[in-house]
Amino acid sequence: MSDYVDHVLEHVNQKNKEEPEFCQAVAEVLDSIRPLLKRNPVYEEKSILEHLVEPDRTIMFRVSWFDDKGVHRVNRGYRVQFNGAVGPYKGGLRFHPSVNLSIISFLGFEQVFKNALTGLPMGGGKGGSNFDPKDKSDNEIMRFCQSFMLELQKHVGPHMDVPAGDIGVGGREIGYLYGMYKRIKNEHVGVLTGKGWGWGGSLIRPEATGYGCVYFAEEMLAVRKRDFSGLTCTISGSGNVAQYCCEKLLEKGAKVVTMSDSGGTIYDPAGITTEKLAWLMELKNVKRKRISEYAKKFAGAEYREGKTPWNIPCDCAFPCATQNEICGADAETLVKNGCVLVSEGANMPTTPEGVNVFLKNKVMYGPGKAANAGGVACSGLEMSQNAQMMYWTREEVDRKLRDIMKSIHSACYETSKKFDCPENYVVGANIAGFQRVADAMIALGHI
Ligand code: NDP
Ligand code: 2IT
Asked: Does 179 share its domain with 250?
């Protein structure tokens, strides 16, 4: 049976030579579902893996826009509709200069299993552009978003494909994208999630990924009869996911000592307090400035230029920035310094070498597709509210989010036990997610 996985992986690597991140994500999933494939030969008999590694479709397009100097600029746009077996395609849009087909394909592939784990009827997709929103004026962002949607609207719809935010795409960008969609279609429908409160958005959606990542960590701790009080935590990133991860950790009684951006890390040994976090959120979300300012503002905090947080001692680490930000050596350092839990707010932030280090050392390790599923789960709740023409209260959405994260944890944990590797959440998440998608594909004739 392992021959089957090896054979498919060989083809994937051969066919997608230019897409290392995509090949990495596929290898991680396929490797860890070997025990299931052994028990259920039907997946090989029906060539499910070959179907699963090929996106339903990939759309690439030119995005043409004017900058403030009147210069006509061009970027490349993407939407990969990866797998629609369990529901309409669902997944974020990323605007970052590093975006290419490999990045969008790996994110789309991960999204398929993540969405399946939520238990909600959502297929997986991802999109974005190599557009760099940094240092662009508000008007430039608006013109770019409008041009992006001019093409994207042909391929999305509330029952077809429902994009949302990701790196570089937050409430402001979703507003401009949604405004353009509405103008073209003359329809006020749930075609995007992450919309603003008051024009179709859901309460708690901005918080959901960060909160969910902490809820998942809390469940992992509970298995070992522990909680957050008194634990020291490091967080990477200082964007949407990192901010609300920090907020929830503080609420749970943990001490957070780092946050970062692509320029470097701030280390605050006294701990980031609620007041300091509020200041940081204003700095990042309103003034759109760099995290280095934090160390100038708060005495005792230091800025480590060009450094990640992973050599700062902690009990728990929350990578919330980007893919492959924890390498094998970082993981070794974390373990050596006493880290016992890693909950991934970002998508695929740990390299395969790093993951092996965590698993070997029995670190409570929550892979992104399980630990950060709270964001897309809450997007699913936003779609439900839109379909009902209703708003739910903050408490109601948060309770549903909490329940979904609990049930994702329990699906992963129970599956890991069933396959004789208790607390291996990589095996648990990949097998539980795969089974739901693969069984739906079979029922639908693999489409
Ligand atoms: P934001 O754009 O709000 O924030 C991204 C943060 O990560 C910023 O601090 C950014 O720093 C940093 N970052 C981005 N790229 C790099 C890089 N190459 N190296 C170092 N730091 C980097 O994005 P989000 O918070 O929404 O997303 C963060 C992660 O969470 C991503 O992996 C995303 O895919 C994942 N995620 C997001 C969800 C959501 O609902 N938003 C849901 C599930 C997962 P800088 O400002 O310097 O670029
Ligand atoms: O990676 C992710 O799950 C997201 N960026 C959120 C996707 C969504 O549709 O809310």
From this structure: no
